[in-house]
Amino acid sequence: MGIMGMDLGALALRYTGLSLSVSDYDSIVAMNIFVALLCGCIVFGHLLEGNRWVNESTTALVMGLITGGVILLVTNGVNSRILVFSEDIFFIYLLPPIIFNAGFQVKKKQFFRNFATITLFGAVGTLISFVIITLGAMGLFSKLDVDPLQLGDYLAIGAIFSATDSVCTLQVLNQDEAPLLYSLVFGEGVVNDATSVVLFNAIQNIDLNHFDAFVLLQFIGKFLYLLFTSTVLGVAVGLLSAYTIKKLCFARHSTDREVAIMMLMAYLSYMLSMLLDLSGILTVFFCGIVMSHYTWHNVTESSRVTTKHTFATLSFIAELFLFLYVGMDALDIEKWRLASSSPKKPIALSAIILGLVMVGRAAFVFPLSFISNLSKKEARLKISFRQQVIIWWAGLMRGAVSIALAYNKFTTFGHTAVRVNAIMITSTVIVVLFSTMVFGLLTKPLIKLLIPPRPAVDISSQSFFDPLLSSLLGSDLDVGQFPPQTNLELLLTIPTRSVHRVWRKFDDRFMRPMFGGRGFVPFVPGSPVERSTHGPGLGSLGTVTEADDHS
Fold this sequence. Notes:
72% of the residues lie in helices and 0% in strands. The chain has 23 helices and no strands. By secondary structure, the chain is mainly α.
């Protein structure tokens, strides 16, 4: 029995006894092996940190393949996995920490400055890719003698393979060296995942037997409704957590309660969204942004460090877990036997899907980049052709979301007895494996070729306008990232940034006094902040300084 497919509650109850059944023992062995593999991925990923070709995602995939091969040999070709995939486990336990940490760690100024372009790529671009993949699949799959698929299956395939995975690219890109490119790739990835999942769920609820213009309008309306309400829910839960921690002063008695309430309310936002049939991805992402802007500044210094590293660690482990599983699932002999007597048909199907993915990606990245550049007057804010190539490349990889949606559509509890479903699962695994391995391996050299590392900025060469720009644009902007000769131009264009200035005034006057945040942290008698500020010795003061650097 696999650890993802078993009933964890029942298993915990059985462990209260003095003896374990055979299935319990097998589950414990499986858990030990998988945890050991996760540790191995971290160790090898660290040792290969400086390698220009390898990253931790590809390391986990390779280790999964090797482990799957060993298990296949040991079991005489019966099985290649030590766990059974469950899309429910993926969406309920593994995806939330990944998406929340993305919102919690994002540089908000860059993200919202490019929000229009991010939405253009993530929402409109995903719809264009969805249409191209769907139409291409309908026209090309029939030539491979694949069992007949229904219209709903083709639409689901379009949604499944519209979901990108930009983890490999983001592991290589430096957020400080290429802030525009990083924010576009990162933001598009989150909006793309949310759009793909919303599309997939909407398709499942459409009556395709009576499809007409009115049903299409209903579909578009529901899509926009889900995007709006999911965002509002995430913001609301984030603000509630900030207000609760600010008013109740948990740190007066225990900093552990601060950390606990932040983690639980972050997870609550996701589960509430799922309960209300909204997009949990968008909800927990914007909850993370709001928590990092308000809630994080309301807790003590020790809680800030704890939460920041806890969220990052949970996200890191979840990502490794998923890539490791995909590597093992690629050798699932049961699905390969059911799909075809030879691997030629799934491989040919995967090649067609990869071709459609590349065409669909190019069909919106370059045209939408051109449209986005028309609205920008400053050359440094425009997306260069080299950056467009990297954005196109970053979206070619497919990952855990595609796997989870494919399992949701074509299997029942991780298993299927239908030949065409087995073909689609094996083809999805091949696409994910090939795109992550091959495209992922080429990502580092490609980015270094197109965007060479910049030399360190000499502080003495910064313009005398920098302090003025910092005060006008906010401390979140690193004005030193701009060439000195452009700072005067930037200063002259400040009046055009009216939206940002209005928001900052509204935030400082109304939001921060109510919900806290930087500059409005309540003073808590007896808290670690007070002891570190007024306590004896300089060591305590050093703690406050170090924590301030993290903020």
